[in-house]
Design goal:
The complex is a heterodimer of chains A (113) and B (112). Chain A has 113 residues and is mainly β. Chain A contains no helices and eleven strands. Chain B has strands at residues 3-5, 10-14, 19-21, 24-26, 33-39, 46-52, 60-61, 64-69, 74-79, 88-95, 100-102, 106-111. The chains are: A mainly beta (113), B mainly beta (112).
């Protein structure tokens, strides 16, 4: 099925561990973004990319790294997990025009203990 | 930076009735797009409706319609003939030249 695929769906980490959340889309979309969703705060932008090789910071980038070596993939790396990073993470993609809404992945629920 | 505000954390509506969810935004851009997304308990984000800022006509999609007031920077969502399946979190979103920004969300409960 065409769309945005995120893995894993659930993850528990210990404080200080590192991990990578995977995101892939097969729609040839230029834009890709990572959001985190916390109760009462909506979705906040972590990092985004407007094309392969180009990334930029969003509202809450600290503690996260991204890269975009291909159009299809946009992994999110947690360098040293902290309890404050407990959240639901969404990857999203869209074509290059602002009129298009984002297509979202199904999300990753991450718990840092 | 653009901000999106949803002032109603929770709303409830009786089945078959009409409910309006509020959203305001702040921007200095003249060309932008506004969206409403629905997030049911499955967690999936579903696009409900889109409005182009340059269009004066309010967007409609079946039972969903918006009231777009550009001068007031207001973008409310009206759900008519509410159904049990409309129960969800609803997010208002803004997109100008690049990324998309979201409000905090409104949780809608539908009572049978």
């Amino acid at each position: 099925n065409a769309g945005v695929t995120q893995t894993p769906k659930f993850q528990v980490l210990k404080t200080g561990q590192s991990m990578t959340l995977q995101c892939a889309q097969d729609m040839n979309h230029e834009y890709m973004s990572w959001y985190r969703q916390d109760p009462g705060m909506g979705l906040r932008l972590i990092h985004y990319s407007v094309g392969a090789g180009i990334t930029d910071q969003g509202e809450v980038p600290n503690g996260y790294n991204v890269s975009r070596s291909t159009t299809e993939d946009f992994p999110l790396r947690l360098l040293s997990a902290a309890p404050s990073q407990t959240s639901v993470y969404f990857c999203a993609s869209s074509p290059g025009t602002p009129r298009d809404g984002y297509t979202f992945g199904s999300g990753t629920r991450l718990t840092v203990v | 930076a653009q901000t999106v505000t949803q002032s109603q954390p929770e709303m409830s509506v009786q089945e078959a009735e009409t409910v309006t969810l509020s959203c305001t935004y702040d921007t200095s851009e003249s060309d932008y797009y506004l969206f409403w997304y629905k997030q049911p308990p499955s967690r999936q984000m579903i696009l409900v409706i889109r409005q182009e800022a340059y269009k004066q006509q309010n967007a409609t999609e079946n039972r969903f319609s918006v009231n777009f007031q550009k001068a007031a920077k207001s973008f409310s969502l009206k759900i008519s003939d509410s159904q049990l399946g409309d129960a969800a979190m609803y997010f208002c979103a803004y997109r100008g030249g690049g990324d998309m920004r979201f409000g905090a969300g409104t949780r809608l409960t539908v009572k049978p």
